[in-house]
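To: structure subgroup
Subject: Chain for Friday's discussion

All,

I'm putting the inputs and outputs inline so they're searchable in the archive.
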Amino acid sequence: YAVPVAPRPLDDHAFVLGLALLPLSADGTSCHGWFDTAFLRGRWTAAGQDLEWEQSTPIKVTRATASGGCCEPDLLHLGGDRLFTTLRCQGDGGAVFSSRQVSFSADGGRTWSPPHSLRYDDGQPVYVPAAFSSFLQSPRTGKIWWFANILDHPVPAQYPRCPLSMAEFDPQRQCLRRASLQVVQDLPPGA
């Protein structure tokens, strides 16, 4: 299924759209609840009447990383052919905690680096539930902000989905700046 995020335009006039892939069983009859992620790269034909599509190589995680694979990619265009994504990975309620895995593409989304855990600039992991996240870049300052339910401890599944926080993304080091972390909205007292 397509992710509910607008396609990202690239410098070469192509655009990229994230997908969650639900692989079929070997006999092609059922899905197993395991997700991989891929990206579609679209480009208008010379006549401008049709779109040509190219699918990236899939991004895959292991059961040591997530209980259901990776999905809900968030995409950030870093200029030229450089792209960065975070991927939602749910824990198993026990030994595997929920995380945002990250991957980088240097070729406009055709191929992706092996995923690894999103980290702060001090090397520590970023703790989040298995929930949606989003990048936004300030048109005034150029700073890139990541919005998510950022917590101070690991969580096993999809909750809590509060507080909503934001942290500045460092595009050179591909990590979050811990000192920039701030709560946007939390639950009111007594909720």
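Points worth raising on Friday:
Residues 115 and 146 are 18 Å apart (CA to CA).
The mean pLDDT is 91.

D.
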